[in-house]
Amino acid sequence: MKKNTQKTIVALLGSPLKGNTALLLENAISGAKKAGATVLQYHVPHLKFSSCLGFGFCKKYPSCQMEDEVTALFPILANANGCIIATPVMTMGVPGALKSFMDRCQVFFYAKYIRKDPMVPVELRKTRKTLLLAISGMNRPDNFDGLMQTINTFCDIVDAPISESLFIRDMDNILDLKTRPDFLQQAYEKGAKLAHEI
C-alpha cells in the first residue's frame, strides 16, 4: 500500500477579530501551503461551543459529553501532522475563547496520562510540531510568560510541541502589521518550515 504523504496542519486563530493576528496567520498559512501542506483553519471565537463543565466523561472515553463544534474537531486535531496557533495576549495570557478550547482538550490529557491510550496515533507523535504566532500590545520582558505556560501545556497533551515561534511586542505603537513586512515574511517562512519538518 502506498503511504499517504499529504501533510495536514490545523491552524487556530485565537483573536476575536480579523486584524493583526489574523494577518500573521494568513502569511504562515500561505507559507505552509506553498510548501505542500493542506491547512484547515478555525477561527476559535466563532466556533459554537461551551466551556468545559467538568462532567468527567473524558476520564473514561476519548470524547466529551458535550456535543458541539469543538467535539467534532477532536479527531481532526488528533490526526493532523502539525498545528499553528495564532493569538494575541489578553490580560497577560490566552484569550477567553482559545483558553476554553484548550480546556475542552482535556480529553487528550486523560487519554495520554490517565488511561495511557493517547488519541494521537503513535506514528504522528514522533513528528508533530506546533508553530506559535503571538502578539502583545505592551513592550515588557514578561509579555508572553503567562501565555506560554498554557500553550506549552496544551501542546504537550496534544503531542505537538512548539518547534518555532514568532513573538511581536509593542503592538500599541506598531498598530498595523502591514507596516512591518519583515514580520509577515517571518511568519511565511516559519509556516513553510513547519510544513517541511512535519
Descriptive account of the structure:
- A 5-stranded parallel sheet has the order 2-1-3-4-5, with helices on one face.
- Helix 1 (20-34) crosses helix 8 (181-197).
- It contains 8 helices and 5 strands; from the N terminus they run βαβαβαααβαβαα.
- Helices cover 38% and strands 17% of the residues.
- It has one domain (8-197): Rossmann fold.
- The protein is globular.
- It is an alpha/beta fold and 198 residues long.
- Helix 6 links the parallel strand 4 and strand 5.
Largest sheet: 5 strands, parallel
CATH class category:
Alpha Beta
CATH superfamily: Flavodoxin domain
Quick one: how many beta strands?
Answer: 5
Mean pLDDT: 96
CATH topology: Rossmann fold
Tally of individual helices: 8
Radius of gyration: 16 Å
How would the global form be characterised? globular
Question: Which spans of ≥5 residues are poorly predicted at pLDDT below 50?
Answer: none
Strand content: 15-25%
CATH architecture: 3-Layer(aba) Sandwich
- Class derived from helix and strand content: alpha/beta
Helical proportion?
25-40%
Short description:
With 198 residues, this protein is an alpha/beta fold. It has helices at residues 20-34, 74-78, 96-104, 106-114, 122-125, 145-157, 171-174, 181-197, and strands spanning 8-13, 38-43, 82-88, 129-135, 162-168.
Short descriptors:
single chain, 198 residues, alpha/beta, Rossmann fold, five-stranded parallel β-sheet, 5 strands
